[in-house]
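Question (not urgent): is this output format expected?
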Amino acid sequence: MGNRKQITSFGEVMMRLEIPSHLTLSQSRSLNYSFSGTGVNVVAALIKLGHKGAIVTTLPANSLGDAAEAALRGLGFDMKYVRRDGQLLGSYFLETGYGSRKSKVTYASRVNSAFNTTSHHAYTDLSFAEDSHYFHLCGIGLAMNEEMRYIMKTLANVVKSKGGSVIFDCNFRASLWSEEDKKQAKTHYEDMLHLADIVMMNERDAISLLGYKSSSADRIEQIKELIPQIAKDYDIRVISGTQRTIEADSHYIQGFLYHKDKGLTFGKPMKVQVLDRIGAGDAYTAGVIHGEICGYDPGYTVQYATAASVLAHTIVGDTAPSSEEDILQVMNEQVLDIER
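Got this back:
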């Protein structure tokens, strides 16, 4: 692969504790576990597409950390920027919905995890910035604490100073912010947007988080009006995201991508069969980054990324192990027989 690049993420490695067989947590007496996280999911998908991947993180110095490290190695991660310290690994319980019952996520240990209690003084090895063509950060980290916010901004500045591109996924979740910190959320997001080259967001982030106003109530029109303005205000090269429409029992995903030199492009809506929705947005992000790396036309990139997300909905687990061939089959809407 001639355009193979190094993608590094900074983020928390989470343990996913899944209740089997669509049971609720109160019903089940067993759990299936795996390891994920926004940065893990995005970089793992890009490794599968032929790129090199690493993560800057802290894992606990115990058997939980050993298991998480083994899982990351199995996904192809370069582990040289992984620290081992502390005792807790952030985790969440997943109750998979069925029919009218929605899936439910319950977080545990996240605030006090080894990752989220690490001081900025611990991240002294900044050689990752020399190696990384792209550096991925997630807005969920901004919600954790002031130390984490400082680390994210510092590392993003280091990468920028070395000529790398910063990818920032807004991923704003109001429930993760304390009432006091929520008052400053906009300011922290603005700081990250000023540092970012590629941003994952939608019109809801623009309105509810950043305070932009739209003259239309239609979501597509809001994207057309607000996303180019945000790109101009914060000097962002690429902004991309998705729209999900639910009709009867069917979901449809439509992607969009704004490029400052090529304008705004909307993809064709694609029908989604939902087996496991968690991580599907990360698959979309990986598709956008892959398209940028490969120099694809924006229309092709957004459809490729949408197909990657559609495929991820059909795979159990947060990290979709989708190959280029798998994604292109969905993108080209081929009717597939059983592969033997």
